[in-house]
Specification:
Number of helices: 18
Strand content: under 5%
Helix content: over 70%
Length: about 450
């Protein structure tokens, strides 16, 4: 999971590195555009989480091959409306950035980047779902290979579109790198579907022929769509707690924007560690929940230390290495001390962030989409974003704006854990002998 997540976030990092030679405004614009792309995709990726959690539960119940095809078909149907909405958001992005008073030079760069990336929504989601399915069926090597090939291709196509005769087809360097990422998304999305089909044909042929009780075609897709809206809104709110402060920071001077861009990118790279642990925990919680809720409850207790220890350890390493990372990602024009300070403001939230998202994985497995969306929306839009607004518009402080995400994590960790307890997830493990005797 760590390998796959690290490679996935590398697309935006590679784009930012390639355009850094064209000036700090390009770095700020691509950084902002990539964050907005991640913000929009966070909502749409709710469908991937719903697909993955349902598939994991079916695998845990011994019905994985029976349900894989209908669940994947339902997921593809859900991706259609998400693509249309994504394109609409891309068209509205310039007005959104102008409304918050972003620097005009940054607005043009970021908007162009977002528009091209949104065209690739169906391919991005398809790749994510195929990769998740391969991991759930324990084909981790195939999943890593698929995403890794895409990462290498992205580097090659970026260079090709920027420094070969093909560069003349693009108006700006940003259009070139965004188009390169789109091409790679199309290729890897198609490859993911092919790999998944070949895997299913090679394994579990007899099981696939059994009828899947409850498979309802469009009805299944409609049910997944309804749940994915809630899960997606929770993820959207989670990203908004980080992205909206950055959008507000884009009202400040270019030096602060560039430092915040690089600090946010460092935080995004760091988050691969806890998110990899959390995603793996979500899969195993799905397996366990498919067997029984009691086993899932015990697994949640065991999982806390396995997620927290590497996450906190990695946070310390990133805090130490952030000046070097800032130099590498932002070039010589970025304010290194300011970038380091802003990075520390992100990292202080790690313990609360881990608890919040572990409880969120449990609630996703339990399909608590509506509850997740309502609680996260209240915290994000009534508390977190107002703090960021005051930080930028009143105090002119990027530090206060970024620390608003810390407040969100603390509040949501408390709320999510309380909901888990209401659903019967007590912080108490089963006896070892009872765990060993359970399938």
């Amino acid at each position: 999971m760590l390998a796959i997540d690290s490679i996935s976030v590398g697309y935006g990092v590679v784009d930012m590195i390639f355009v850094s030679a064209f000036g700090v405004a390009m770095v700020a614009g691509v950084g902002l555009g990539d964050l907005l792309t991640a913000l929009y995709l966070a909502f749409f990726a709710g469908s991937v989480d719903v697909f993955a959690s349902r598939l994991a539960r079916r695998v845990g119940a011994g019905e994985g091959y029976v349900w894989l095809a209908p669940l994947f078909r339902g997921f593809l149907l859900v991706a259609v409306p998400w693509t249309l909405i994504g394109l609409l958001l891309a068209v509205l992005t310039p007005a959104l950035l102008e409304m918050v008073g972003s620097d005009p030079a940054v607005v043009g760069v970021a908007s162009g980047y977002v528009l091209v990336r949104m065209i690739g929504i169906p391919f991005t989601l398809t790749l994510a779902a195929a990769s998740a399915a391969l991991r759930i069926f324990n084909k981790r090597g195939m999943s890593v290979m698929l995403v890794g090939i895409g990462f290498v291709l992205n580097i090659g196509v970026d260079a090709l579109f920027l420094y070969s005769p093909l560069a003349s087809f693009f108006f700006t360097p940003v259009a070139a790198v965004a188009s390169a990422t789109l091409v790679v998304q199309v290729l890897t999305g198609a490859a993911g579907v092919v790999l998944l089909i070949r895997f299913v044909r090679r394994h579990g042929t007899a099981e696939r022929r059994k009828p899947a009780e409850g498979v309802r075609g469009l009805g299944l897709a409609r049910d997944m769509l309804k749940t994915s809206v809630g899960i997606g809104l929770r993820q959207l709110n989670d990203y908004a707690a980080s992205v909206v402060p950055f959008v507000l920071i884009s009202r400040l001077d270019i030096a602060t924007i560039a430092a915040a861009t690089v600090a946010t990118r460092i935080w995004t790279i760091y988050c691969r560690v806890p998110q990899a642990c959390l995603a793996a925990a979500g899969v195993y919680l799905g397996y366990a929940r498919g067997a029984s809720q009691r086993i899932a409850t015990a697994l949640m207790r065991v999982t806390i230390s396995y997620v927290a220890l590497p996450s906190i350890g990695a946070a310390v390493l990133f805090a130490v290495a952030s000046p070097l990372l800032a130099q590498f990602l932002g070039g010589g024009d970025v304010d290194i001390p300011l970038t380091w300070m802003l990075t520390l403001c992100f990292l202080i939230a790690v313990p609360a962030y881990v608890l919040e998202n572990l409880a969120g994985e449990v609630l996703t497995v339990e399909q608590q989409g509506k509850w997740l969306s309502v609680s996260s929306s209240i915290v994000t839009y009534a508390i977190t974003i107002p703090i960021a607004i005051v930080g930028v518009l009143v105090l002119q402080s990027a530090v206060v704006a970024i620390l608003s995400a810390f407040v969100a994590s603390v509040l949501l960790a408390a709320v999510y854990l309380r909901r888990c307890r209401q659903l019967g997830y007590r912080v108490r493990a089963l006896p070892v002998e009872e765990m060993a005797a359970t399938p």
